[in-house]
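Researcher: I'm preparing a figure for a lab meeting and need a structural model of a single chain. I don't have an experimental structure, so a prediction will have to do for now. The sequence is pasted below. Please return the structure as tokens so I can convert it later.
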Amino acid sequence: MTEPVGRLHGAVRSATATLHRTAARWRRRPPRDLDLGQVDTDGFTMVQLLDETDVRDVRAVVDTVIADNDAGFFASPAHAWGDEARRVDQVLKARLAGRLADLLPGYEPFMVAITSKPRHSSQQIKFHHDWTYTDERRHHPVFLWCPLVDCTAHSGALQVIPGSHLWSERIRPSRTLEATEHLQGELEPLAVELAFRAGDAVAFHPGTLHGSEPNSSPIDRPAITIALAPQDAQLVHFHLDQGGELSGFNVDESFFTLNPYGQPPAAADPIAPWSTALTEQDLRDALHDGARPEEAGR
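Model: Understood. Here is the structure written out token by token.
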């Protein structure tokens, strides 16, 4: 193993070791305070987001939307974009406003979504990045994924790849085919399985690779995803069309629930991309050529 490759794999091992050292504490419940430093370093951390009352109230909202869903994985911005996704977003933002303000002072939620898997589901969510939502040269969002039932990999809990948010600084646009599509076999062995009690959450950088196994358990796995950004951050969206052209736009928070999922806005102020789009080759270089995590993709 070359020295650079060793450094890259060492970063993954270090973050994994950190998780294992604190696993027993997280089984007891993770802390209620969020360690942003660990998100910056490892790409993720655990936090106790919701108490029992919060879980009950959020579950009541979620159940009104997914009660008749037996088609597989359901994400409200993708499968119910428009009025329904917007209603869920607004109701849950209002219900959780106090807790989120305490958890991340100076941040504002710009999207709250349902991300649910039914029982005995065969659907796997492949490892992927989330989009670029702000100018990450200045500040990055924080995502929270929170199941409303106790959850393990067996029931479709989120898995993450430690340190993968440092593999590239290129833009992550909406696109037809993810840059990770053909790398699943190489990414899966690097993933860390997380276990949750209802109301626990994993906080992660949107550039952290994540995915989930099928929910093979006999109970549904309702969950919510919350995206927060610094209050002074301009929200953006980038889209890579099938011809390879990368377009950028300034958007507001309503875009992420009202606009057809994965499509560019019909009317928005254009912006110039500050980099090219992340590619499969960028990720292959990080995995195989051993580029330093902080330098990969620059």
